[in-house]
Write a structure and sequence with these properties.
two-stranded antiparallel sheet; 40% helix; alpha/beta; 339 residues; TIM Barrel; disordered C terminus; 8-stranded parallel sheet; 10 strands
């Protein structure tokens, strides 16, 4: 049930023991795990050699400031650039969203990574931690762009993760460093923030990542620990049948729940299938705390694993990659046309 962080560009001996733990269902890679394309492919191979059962290798490769792999990979504009283009040419923006996702996912699949936790479907309503990671402020625009993005991911053989449910864009706090509270009533959240989640779930999104945000007019507990948000609203009202992922339990916003064991139990009891433990410093405690807990299940993990992918050389010969990258490049410039 855990997705854990690793310390460096190669597996340490202790990390091999972590990967042998049955409650570890995957790893998440960061910039600290990346030197170049060949190195990260070798690291993925190392990880795969330790676990032959369904096992996830994940990363945040959203584009803009959240692009963990850079050297040798296509530079990806922040998702907000797609929203800016949507203001001028909605049809072109949806096409660019599909191409952005296809390039991102195809390159990751070519080095053996299963999934990027994407797309962000939070509304661009002023949260600095989300900022230019959000597609747009308007729910309908986010839905349209997210549909294009999901198509691109699927064409490249990658499952989609919608984040951060039920919407992180309207709070001021950065949950990496502070507790976050959204005082709005459910009716307003349902009419705004839930719209792109509901639309993307209806088209078959495979995973949802929960927000470390408390919505006190709905539940006193943070969303990722709330049976109301997960059971009643996400699974009941929206009919989501995929995998529910708890955001990093090492974030400051999770500290109010208690120690690592208490955080894991709170998320598990609320209905989260997978829990992120991104800092290597907390991984041993997380593994010990989750011993004996029910796993996510091989069939559910298999649904998130990447489809068969081309080699990097084959991808490099695919003219679509260069064509799409060339059409994305103008999005880095203010006022660029994207047609």
């Amino acid at each position: 049930m855990l997705i854990i962080g690793l310390s460096g560009t190669r597996l340490a001996d202790g990390e091999r023991a972590w990967l042998a733990s049955p409650q570890v269902s995957g790893v998440i890679l960061f910039t600290r795990n990346f030197a170049d394309r060949d190195q990260v492919a070798a690291l993925v191979d190392e990880v795969r050699a330790e676990r032959g059962d369904p096992f996830l290798v994940c990363v945040d490769q959203e584009g803009g400031r959240v692009q963990r792999f850079r050297a040798g990979f296509t530079p990806l504009p922040a998702l907000s650039r797609l929203g800016a283009l949507y203001e001028r040419d909605p049809q072109a923006a949806v096409v660019r969203a599909e191409e952005h996702a296809w390039v991102m996912a195809s390159e990751l699949r070519a080095v053996g990574v299963d999934m990027s936790f994407a797309p962000v479907v939070d509304l661009a309503r002023g949260n600095l931690a989300i900022g230019d990671r959000a597609l747009h402020a308007d729910p309908e625009a986010v839905s349209a762009l997210a549909h294009g993005y999901l198509r691109g991911m699927r064409l490249a053989g990658m499952a989609a993760t919608l984040k951060h449910f039920p919407g992180h864009g309207s709070v001021l706090e950065d949950t990496h460093f502070d507790a976050a509270v959204d005082p709005r009533p459910l009716e307003r959240i349902r009419a705004e923030d839930l719209v792109p989640f509901a639309d993307a779930i209806a088209t078959g999104a495979e995973a949802v990542m929960m927000a470390h945000v408390t919505y006190p007019q709905v539940d006193a507990l943070p969303a990722g620990c709330s049976r109301i948000w997960i059971g009643d609203i996400l699974r009941g009202e929206l009919g989501f049948r995929g995998v529910v992922i708890a955001d990093d339990i090492g974030m400051a916003a999770a500290e109010s729940l208690g120690g690592i064991a208490a955080r894991i139990e709170a998320h598990r009891a609320a209905g989260c299938d997978l829990v992120l433990a991104c800092s290597p410093a907390i991984v041993p405690e997380a593994i010990a705390a989750s011993a004996g807990a029910a796993s996510c299940g091989p069939e559910r993990l298999a649904a998130l694993q990447g489809a068969v992918a081309p080699t990097w050389d084959a991808l490099a010969r695919n003219p679509k990659r260069d064509q799409f990258a060339a059409r994305l490049a103008p999005l880095f410039e203010d006022g660029a046309e994207g047609a």
